[in-house]
Amino acid sequence: MRIRVVNPNTSAAMTARIAAAAAAVAAPGTLVDAVHSSFGAPSIEDHHDDVWAAAGVLEQVRRGQAEGADAFVIACFGDPGLHAAREVADGPVIGIAEAAFHAASLLATGFSVVTTLTRTCVIADHLVLQYGFERKCRGIHGTDIAVLDLDGADGTCFETILGTAREALARDRSGAIVLGCAGMADLCGELQQRLGVPVIDGVGAAVKLAEALVGLGLRTSKSGDYAPPLAKTYAGLAQPWSP
Amino acid sequence: MRIRVVNPNTSAAMTARIAAAAAAVAAPGTLVDAVHSSFGAPSIEDHHDDVWAAAGVLEQVRRGQAEGADAFVIACFGDPGLHAAREVADGPVIGIAEAAFHAASLLATGFSVVTTLTRTCVIADHLVLQYGFERKCRGIHGTDIAVLDLDGADGTCFETILGTAREALARDRSGAIVLGCAGMADLCGELQQRLGVPVIDGVGAAVKLAEALVGLGLRTSKSGDYAPPLAKTYAGLAQPWSP
Amino acid sequence: MRIRVVNPNTSAAMTARIAAAAAAVAAPGTLVDAVHSSFGAPSIEDHHDDVWAAAGVLEQVRRGQAEGADAFVIACFGDPGLHAAREVADGPVIGIAEAAFHAASLLATGFSVVTTLTRTCVIADHLVLQYGFERKCRGIHGTDIAVLDLDGADGTCFETILGTAREALARDRSGAIVLGCAGMADLCGELQQRLGVPVIDGVGAAVKLAEALVGLGLRTSKSGDYAPPLAKTYAGLAQPWSP
Amino acid sequence: MRIRVVNPNTSAAMTARIAAAAAAVAAPGTLVDAVHSSFGAPSIEDHHDDVWAAAGVLEQVRRGQAEGADAFVIACFGDPGLHAAREVADGPVIGIAEAAFHAASLLATGFSVVTTLTRTCVIADHLVLQYGFERKCRGIHGTDIAVLDLDGADGTCFETILGTAREALARDRSGAIVLGCAGMADLCGELQQRLGVPVIDGVGAAVKLAEALVGLGLRTSKSGDYAPPLAKTYAGLAQPWSP
Amino acid sequence: MRIRVVNPNTSAAMTARIAAAAAAVAAPGTLVDAVHSSFGAPSIEDHHDDVWAAAGVLEQVRRGQAEGADAFVIACFGDPGLHAAREVADGPVIGIAEAAFHAASLLATGFSVVTTLTRTCVIADHLVLQYGFERKCRGIHGTDIAVLDLDGADGTCFETILGTAREALARDRSGAIVLGCAGMADLCGELQQRLGVPVIDGVGAAVKLAEALVGLGLRTSKSGDYAPPLAKTYAGLAQPWSP
Amino acid sequence: MRIRVVNPNTSAAMTARIAAAAAAVAAPGTLVDAVHSSFGAPSIEDHHDDVWAAAGVLEQVRRGQAEGADAFVIACFGDPGLHAAREVADGPVIGIAEAAFHAASLLATGFSVVTTLTRTCVIADHLVLQYGFERKCRGIHGTDIAVLDLDGADGTCFETILGTAREALARDRSGAIVLGCAGMADLCGELQQRLGVPVIDGVGAAVKLAEALVGLGLRTSKSGDYAPPLAKTYAGLAQPWSP
Question: Is the whole-model pTM more than 0.95?
Answer without folding.
Answer: yes
